Amino acid sequence: MKRTIVFVCAMVASGSVFSEGKSHWGYSGHEGPNHWASLSADNFACSGKNQSPINLSGFIESELIPIAFNYSNGGYEILNNGHTVQVNYKKGSSIKIDGTTFNLLQFHFHAPSENHINGHSYPLEAHLVHADNNGNLAVVAVMFKEGAANKGLTKAWAMMPKYEGDKHLLSAMVPVDDILPKERDYYRFNGSLTTPPCSEGVRWLVMKQEVTASEEQINAFKHVLHEPNNRPLQAINARAILK
Ligand SMILES: [Zn+2]
User: Fold this and answer.
1) Residue-wise pLDDT tens digits, 212-241
2) Residues near ligand 1 ion, CB 5 Å cutoff
3) Which end of the chain is less crowded, N or C, counting CB atoms within 10 A of the terminal residue's CB?
4) What distance in angstroms lies between residue 108's CA and the mean position of ligand 1's atoms?
């Protein structure tokens, strides 16, 4: 069984075949970001005008209302889907913004960061994915710089899913608060999923304060992904970036 998974992973890494049961895309070559819109009719939004990630700059001063965080401990499962490493979250954690409750579904990572802030790229970025009852999405993004080990990553990486398709229950649940900064001021813009189908209408809430991860923690993630999993910066077009 293990041997099969390794084999599939090796083929996917070479970009030569389709993986089982999902539309195939990647971060380089003919399946890379420049081709996502043409890989499938479902990906039409990838060529849209409100795409993520972006370089956050040219901010508009704004009285942003604090995000109301209602998080409890609940990261229970970790998986490798070939595009990222993701921690699935138990029901019952949410944020409130614009008078609407968005439930935390999962968080996952990109190395290097997808969004830039004032032209600055970070070695790692976490995306905390939330949905309201109508399926609208809100993503809280956290930037990591290299420094002290992050205790949330220590718990999650203890069960690192090394190969595409691997999924493990976490022996110690990961509280999402462990990967968030103390200060929760944020930048805000309208964007999209950063992976196919690149659906727009996503509320992006990027933490201003970064957190740290150790060099070993960052390298452990890069090692299982085989290639950088950051979509290139997208044009801002007519959007405002609020701070
Ligand atoms: Zn992401």
Assistant:
1) 999 999 999 999 999 999 999 999 999 999
2) 127
3) N
4) 6
